[in-house]
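WARN no homologs supplied; continuing
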Amino acid sequence: MKRKPGIFIILLTYLLVIGCGGQDIVGRITGPDGKPIGNLQVLLYNASADKPVSAAAEGVTNDKGIFHIKTDNPGDAVLEVVGDKGEGRIYIVHDKLRNRIDITYPVKEKIVFLHDNDLHFDFNSLGAFQTRLEVVRNSNKDVFLFNAGDTFVRHQARWIVDGQPMEDKAWYGERALYMIDTMNLLGYDLMTPGNHELAYIQPYTLIALEKAQFPLIAANIEVSTDAIPPLEPYRILSTSTWRTVAVLGLTTVSLPADSTGIKLLDPFDTAKQYIYLADENDLFVALTHIGYNNDRELAARFPNIDIIIGGHSHTLLENAEIINTVLVAQAGGSEHIMSKDHVKYLGEVDVILENGEIKEKKGHVMVFPLP
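OK structure emitted
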């Protein structure tokens, strides 16, 4: 009688097979017409914050559009499809790697920009606003949330709550902190400060802005005061498939005389200095607080800018405009005096890339009515 292998040997054999065999990934690539495409190179990268230097595995589609890739990667992955129409990328959650992957080439990628502006101490309809953020984030892999300035109210005469004037500057400090804490909670990615933040009130503006868990960007100002935190001219954001988005901050064109230690530079001259970012990145966005008319002028002068998301003029563009190939968006805003009667706006700009090139861009504004 032959001796049956022990449990230990069976387990060891199983582990060796799994360890050596890896995971077999199967997919099919077709064109927009549904016809299979052969001879496409498929590279598999381990998903990470930065694109790895080399692919973890690769394969080539046959004449039926089928590819096979074997990998030891147990986690999420990015597949890069390379052909004569360029390269496209798709992020795939590890659970779906076990199923057949169907891809259309050229590959489309979607980036969503959510934005608001000129809140002026109002964050009404917060519950509905937060729910909408969750819906968009759960439905899309790459979502960024921006604010285009004037979150605070500088003028003491306008610190009014339920008809009662708030004369204590400490109240301003508390409300400013509430706004920044709320923005932190909601996960804002970037903010361009407006004239109400730059016309600072010591020490409260600094205390509030220093708590921001998101960068403050503005390229057209020089700061020589410690009454506001340091500002960055721009930020480079990255999507889940390593597409890069350069966001240039351009803020107000005028300040009160008592705002010492802040020098404003011409926003158009400043934009010209940074236009090189358009060539170095997949998308170039201007996050501005210079007003609608200046945004239009910016678009007319610099078609290299893909998107302008603006504030300051409280302009409600229910549907974003295309000016000189540049998409211009702005999401209304609140009055300078706080009120529970103010509705909340949220702009959304959707960008579709096809093999890394912009195929479509559009924007609209959602209104959240009062509870």
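The chain has eight helices and 22 strands.
OK
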